[in-house]
Design a protein that fits this description.
Layout: H1 4-36, H2 56-64, H3 73-104, H4 110-120, H5 129-139, H6 145-149, H7 156-168, H8 171-179
Helix pairs in contact: 3-7, 4-7
Length: about 180
């Protein structure tokens, strides 16, 4: 008869075996991609480990760009960082101030505004791609930074999330903070 410890141990072994297999299954494509970047083109599909080590692909990437265009790869990474940073900071900022206003300030139309934000979350973002493109075309913002980050500066999901968070903060805590000098 198998005792409880042996049963738990066999369960752990099976669990870790599945987790290990899953880890290998998920990490292998990244390892293969990294090794393939150091191979000559003839070896990419034929061998797992490179026999002729080359940095030619990285030289081409950083001198010409990923597609051989005149835009360098480093500039593309910088543009991505700028656009994503501005969009992230603005979503957090506008989501926080709007969420606080909807959760704590009583004003006419608050329920209507809250319902409008929830209603907006019913539609997939893909539905608005063509109208958004036409608007950017009308404004002359195609291929500009404004055209990249302005559609993502405010998020209904972020407003909803911050509203729900601020509703959980006790009013006594806010009153105590104001009494202590927070404004």
């Amino acid at each position: 008869m198998i005792n409880k410890k042996q049963s738990e141990l066999s369960g752990l072994v099976i669990t870790y075996a599945f987790l290990g297999f899953g880890l290998i299954f998920m990490v292998f494509p990244y390892v293969w991609m990294l090794l393939a970047s150091f191979k000559i083109p003839a070896e990419i599909y034929n061998r797992f480990l490179p026999t002729q080590f080359t940095l030619e692909h990285y030289r081409m990437l950083f001198s010409l760009g990923a597609t051989g265009s005149t835009n360098p790869f480093v500039r593309s990474i910088f543009n991505s960082l700028v656009v994503s940073s501005i969009a992230t900071i603005s979503v957090v900022f506008f989501g926080a101030i709007t969420g606080y206003a909807l959760a704590r300030i009583i004003f006419p139309g608050r329920t209507l505004l809250n319902n409008f934000i929830l209603f907006q979350m019913l539609f997939p973002i893909v539905l608005f791609l063509i109208p958004r493109f036409l608007l950017m075309l009308e404004l002359g913002w195609i291929n500009t930074f404004q055209g990249m980050f302005s559609p993502f500066m405010i998020s209904a999901w972020a407003i909803f999330l911050f509203t729900q968070f601020f509703k959980t903060v006790p009013q006594e805590l806010i009153d105590a903070a104001r009494l202590d000098g927070c404004s």
